[in-house]
Write a sequence for this structure.
C-alpha cells in the first residue's frame, strides 16, 4: 500500500510539473489573400514572451509589404537576438519589431502581461504574390523558455486589378473576334 501511495504522489508531482511548464506553440491563421497572422497558442494562463523570425521560404512572386504587431496583447517590446542582422547573436540585437521587406524578413521580440490560455494573435504580415512563409523562434511562458518553435504557411495572393485585367485580355480579344464573324 505504501508503494501505491508513493507512486500516486509521484504521478501528481509529474502532472503538476507538466502543467507549470506548458510549452506554447506557433501557428499561422487568417490568410485573407493579402495578409496572414502568426499566432501564439498557450495552454496555461501566464505572461508570455516571443522572439520570432519570419522569412519567405519559397516563392518567386511573394513579397512582404507590411508587418503589424498586436500591441493590445503584446504590449512590451523586448530586446531580441535578430538572426537577420550580421553578428547575431553577439551584436545582432534588435528591439521590438524589425523589418527588411526587400529581403522578405521580419523579426519581432515582444512580451505580454498575465493573460489567459488560448490563441493569441502576434503579428500580421501583409503580402502580395504567392509562396510560403516560415516562422521560427523562441517562446517563454510562465518564466520558462521553451524549445524552438516553427510554423509554415503556403500563401496564394489575390491578383492585383491590373494583373487580373491583363489576364482577361486574351478572352476579351477572342470574344471580339467571334462577334465579328
Amino acid at each position: 500500500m505504501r508503494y501505491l501511495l508513493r507512486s500516486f504522489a509521484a504521478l501528481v508531482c509529474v502532472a503538476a510539473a507538466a502543467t507549470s511548464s506548458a510549452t506554447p506553440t506557433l501557428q499561422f491563421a487568417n490568410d485573407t489573400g493579402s495578409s496572414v497572422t502568426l499566432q501564439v497558442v498557450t495552454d496555461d494562463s501566464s505572461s508570455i514572451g516571443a522572439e520570432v523570425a519570419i522569412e519567405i521560404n519559397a516563392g518567386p512572386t511573394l513579397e512582404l509589404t507590411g508587418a503589424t504587431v498586436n500591441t493590445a496583447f503584446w504590449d512590451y517590446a523586448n530586446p531580441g537576438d535578430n538572426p537577420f542582422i550580421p553578428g547575431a547573436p553577439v551584436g545582432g540585437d534588435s528591439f521590438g519589431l524589425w523589418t527588411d521587406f526587400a529581403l522578405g524578413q521580419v523579426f519581432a521580440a515582444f512580451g505580454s502581461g498575465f493573460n489567459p490560455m488560448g490563441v493569441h494573435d502576434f503579428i500580421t504580415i501583409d503580402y502580395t504574390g504567392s509562396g510560403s512563409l516560415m516562422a521560427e523562434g523562441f517562446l517563454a511562458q510562465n518564466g520558462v523558455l521553451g524549445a524552438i518553435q516553427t510554423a509554415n504557411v503556403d500563401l496564394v495572393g489575390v491578383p492585383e486589378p491590373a494583373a487580373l485585367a491583363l489576364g482577361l485580355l486574351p478572352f476579351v480579344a477572342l470574344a471580339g473576334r467571334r462577334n465579328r464573324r
